[in-house]
Amino acid sequence: MIRSLLVGVLMTGVTVADTKTKTFEVQAREVLERHAKEIQPLEKTLSLAWWNANTTGSKEDFKKKADAQDKYDAKISDPKYFAEVKAVREKAGAATDKLLARQIDVLYFQMLEKQVPTDLLKQVSDLSNKIEETFNNYRAHVDGKELTDSAVKGVLKSSLDSKHRQAVWEASKGVGAAVEKDLTQLVKLRNQIAKKQGYANYAELMLAMSEQKPEAVLKLFDELDTLTREPYQKLKAEIDAVLASNYHLTPAQLRPWHYHDPFFQEAPLVYEADLDQVYKKADILALNKKFYDGIGLPIDDVIKRSDLYEKKGKSPHAFCTDIDRKGDVRVLANIVPNEAWMNTMLHELGHSVYSSKNIPDSMPYLLRTESHILTTEGVAMLFQKFSKRADFLQALGLKVDNAAAFNSAGEKLQRAELLVFSRWAQVMFRFEKAMYENPDQDLRALWYSLVEKYQGLKKPEGRNAADYGAKIHIVVAPVYYHNYLMGQLFASQVAHTIAKTVLGGVEPKKASYIGNKKVGDYFKAKVFGPGKSLSWNELTKFATGEELSPKAFAADFN
């Protein structure tokens, strides 16, 4: 679920003094013309280098990625250029061309992070690149065998041997120790960047760049904590009872390796039907193609450019990236025939349709992208839910032997996943916030204090390891994870709107999109079409009639 966020701008040749005599419109267009000429090609080069490094894992490609990053950073870090944009932005309040003003506003925040010495930017780039390379090449080793990321998850989903589960889980966390020292240094370097921009730390800077206020996000998370705490505790007691029985333990003896996912960010498979069984002989790619084609959002071109199956050196994760904002959209994946990968592909291909593929060419380059991280995550999350519904699969032509059992398990699991993920996101948001506020504190202890408080997991006795460092998002997508949960709110709100306004008032949980091009039309008109011309909350209101709230989300898990 990691996405390429490659942004920036270049302004040259115009001094700050010139801004006093030129109108906002003239200045803004000069800035944008230079951006088109000098920055857009660098962004494409960097996007391609980033793609190649993650698909091959080779040192040579990672070196090219680092070089491309350095060239890009050098162009957008000149304080004179930023001063011009800042001066132009200060005139934007009186502008009659609101689309032009929006572009300048977007440029300002994209440049903000880079207004630091080039040598500091290079240190951040080099260290981030080094850590990412470690992640891509790390594999867990247990009993002399090398395990891919998918193999680790397979063991945690199916093995009833607690000792083997523990060994595999601990081995998967080994990457945390491998990157811990570098990660702490990276956090401190990022904080230096933030302080040079007048922010207390990097987390505050990242929120500002995302047009979010720390106090507003924290308030929303506190509300969600209250909303989910009691139902989550009841759900976890139910999950623990099943897991304890499976492993011949008491609930009190359960530890993190018993929960089917290395981080307990997904709900364990504790219900009657085995959702993976249905997918064992399924062509996951073909199912996705049929679904997206049927709602009028075809993905053939995306599939042709993508890299979708496991190979040595390749990133073991999944992401979607828009290379040029002109339709070159790609997905990296490692598909194996199970429900998790059907879920993941619906998600990543959901990102792919919310891209320059379906944002009008008439939209300016800087606005020809999603409104916000949380809106594209919301769209992807909305689509991924269908992997747990038998009626959805049967409509695509996949045989489901016991549809009633599959649906029952899928519905319970979907509800569980909403609750489990909401608590996991609490850990990530609060950990990163605290980590950037004080990177010298005991981060290992901080991690488990949050895991215990929000997820209810027990820290393994005597364990003192950098398990937080095994979460790649902390490295490559800092202060990003809260948007997944906010995206889930957006997904629920959009789904309720579609059920009411497009599908005639059906129950959102039972709404069928199969073969209904009106659904695709809604997305293109109400979600994709505005691109980044609207902020995330403006888009939410445009698409659903209301600003973002927990109401639809609460209705889904209740």
How would you portray this structure in words?
This protein has 22 helices and 4 strands. It is an all-alpha fold and 558 residues long. Among the domains are: 16-115, no CATH class; 138-189 and 228-273 and 407-474, no CATH class. The strands form 2 sheets. It has a two-stranded antiparallel sheet. Helix 1 crosses helix 3 (79-91), helix 2 (59-76) runs antiparallel to helix 5 (118-137) and helix 13 crosses helix 14.
Task: Count every beta strand, where a strand is a DSSP E run of 2 or more residues.
Answer: 4
Distance between the termini: 26 Å
Strand content: under 5%
Give the number of helices: 22
- Integer average pLDDT: 92
- State the helicity in percent bands: 55-70%
Reading the helices and strands in chain order gives HHHHHEEHHHHHHHEEHHHHHHHHHH
- Contiguous uncertain segments of 5+ residues: 1-17
Helical/strand content category: mainly alpha
| Main β sheet profile | 2 strands, antiparallel
Strand order of the largest sheet: 1-2
| Backbone shape | globular
User: Mind telling me the C-alpha Rg?
Assistant: 23 Å
Keywords summarizing the entry:
single chain; mainly alpha; two-stranded antiparallel ribbon; about 5% strand
A few lines on this structure:
With 558 residues, the protein is an all-alpha fold.
Q: Secondary-structure blueprint of this entry?
A:
Elements: H1 24-56, H2 59-76, H3 79-91, H4 98-112, H5 118-137, E1 140-142, E2 145-147, H6 149-158, H7 162-172, H8 174-196, H9 202-209, H10 214-246, H11 284-294, H12 300-305, E3 319-322, E4 329-332, H13 339-353, H14 373-384, H15 390-395, H16 403-437, H17 443-455, H18 473-476, H19 482-501, H20 517-528, H21 536-544, H22 551-557
Helix pairs in contact: 1-2, 1-3, 1-4, 2-5, 3-4, 5-8, 6-7, 8-9, 10-16, 11-13, 13-14, 14-19, 16-17, 16-19, 19-22
